[in-house]
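Board notes (copied after class):
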Amino acid sequence: MSTFKSWFSSAKTGLSEQVKKFQNKDFLDAVVAGCAIVAAADGSIRLR
């Protein structure tokens, strides 16, 4: 059980750090723009 608790605590800490990155609006805008560029790389973007 101790191993699970330590794994869960580690995962929670890592997730918190990743979420903090996206609280910065400029960084979030850059990530979304990067995703749009990658999505458009083949010449078309389709909504499903």
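Comment from the instructor: The mean pLDDT is 80. The longest helix spans residues 2-21.
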